[in-house]
Amino acid sequence: MQSSQPAHSSLILGITLAASFVLGGCTAPLMLGTALFGGTAWIMSDKRTPGVQLEDHTIEIKAYNRAIELIGDKGHVVVTSFNRQVLLTGEVFNESDKRAVEQAARRVDNVASVNNELVVTWPSSSSERSNDMMLATKVRATLIDASNVPSQAFKVVVERGVVYLMGRVKAAEANKATELTRNIAGVRKVVRLLDIVAPDPADPALLPPRPTAPY
């Protein structure tokens, strides 16, 4: 059984290069809007520096190309990088391929860590990937509509109903986004791959209330 993922991903990479925009890491200038390909959704603005966004884009391209060199079209591999943290999702046919793809990703320049979530099984069907795409859209819309959740700081990846949340957020933001995502119909599990940052001491929400003047 052959997967259409390599051709699909090549098209995605071609579009991103032609637009001079990194899906999952971008070059300046930043753009507002939403991008959605397969089971991954992004808001095209985040807290990474342009340099780190460019590095993430380069990591994704190199790691994906190395995966294809190893397994060809005998699997379905998706590479996502955020702040040099790589997430591998999709399906491969055996444990040897799973390990090989991970090792290849680790050897890419500037990769800080690799989260190998590849599953040893047949590649997902087109209907499963379509469901993942719709679920990613629902998660993104839920985060955008929520109060006190910086939706632009999250990257959402969905594979077989499992939602991976990536980004740089405060602990309270991470917890709220996780809870909202868990309650969405169709979500099997939420995996958090988040960088938790300390809250800003100058955040008005953390300042003590002003004393009220006596009547």
Characterize the structure shown:
By secondary structure, this protein is α/β, with parallel strands linked by helices. Helices cover 37% and strands 24% of the residues. The protein has five helices and nine strands, in the order H-E-E-H-E-E-H-E-E-H-E-E-H-E. It has helices at residues 5-18, 50-71, 95-106, 126-145, 171-182, and strands at residues 34-37, 40-43, 75-82, 85-92, 113-116, 119-120, 154-159, 162-169, 189-196. The strands form two sheets. The chain has a five-stranded mixed beta sheet with strand order 1-2-7-8-9. Strand 3 and strand 4 form a beta hairpin. Helix 2 runs antiparallel to helix 3 (95-106). The relative contact order is 0.13.
Keywords:
9 strands; four-stranded mixed beta sheet; five-stranded mixed beta sheet; globular; alpha/beta; disordered N terminus; 215 residues
Beta-strand percentage range? 15-25%
Describe the strand arrangement of the main beta sheet, using strand numbers. Answer: 1-2-7-8-9
CA-based shape: globular
- The number of helical segments is 5
Note poorly predicted spans. 1-38, 209-215
**What percent of residues adopt helix (DSSP H or I)?**
25-40%
Alpha-carbon distance between the two ends:
78 Å
Q: Roughly how many Å is the radius of gyration?
A: 18 Å
SSE class: alpha/beta
Number of strands: 9
Q: What number is the mean pLDDT?
A: 80
Largest sheet properties: 5 strands, mixed
SSE pattern: HEEHEEHEEHEEHE
